[in-house]
Give the backbone structure.
Amino acid sequence: MKLTILGCSGGIGSGRHTTCLKVDDDVLIDAGTGITTLDFEQLLAIDHVFLTHAHLDHTLGLPLLLDSVGDLRATPLTVHALPEVLAVLSTHLFNWHLWPDFREIPSAESPWLRFAPLDFGEALTLKGRTFRPLPVNHVVPACGVHLATTAGSLVFSGDTTHSDAFVAALNAIPDLCHLIIDTSFENALVDIAQASKHHWPDSLAAELQALSVRPELWITHLKPGNEAAIMNELRAAAPNWGLEALMQGQVIEL
């Protein structure tokens, strides 16, 4: 399994792209502006998209993906997400006002887009890769993603702040090799972090103390311009962890 980081920033500018991770050649986890780094043939190869939540920095590439390649696909693009997330997309995105409903184009019997609810406690296996939603704590319905292979596991938190349930889920994955986790703000911006339910360095350091597993740790969703300051504070708050910022273009293999 090869995970390619197409976008992992908390914003845009100077080449930054928002969250989009590609699993091998056929699956995306989230569909932020990182999707625009793919060429046309790579877009056409995407068959499944797993969404952690409905915020635009994680979903805005989805309608443009369908607009670009929908008519060339032999089967619908399948979007997997919590039922509450799919309800938001139905009401606010694919609603014929903000964007056409590709679940009805060219017809309801033969659409370009299909929604597939995936709730907590469920899992989906595609070509030997198992995807499972994990509980997190964000301002909207959201999940992390546990990606399991025969070689080990990787977890992507999506957007979250402290969550006992997420920590418990991580500790229940003995073969956890990689953890990609959100830390968006410096400690001085703790009020904004708390209001928007993102980690800040001190909160993530406290979370790490509760982990009984020891994966490689990658920090994502760093706010533009604050990346170095956040990472410096993180390393000071959690000196026993080898913390690294996730990088656009990075490839993680299992």
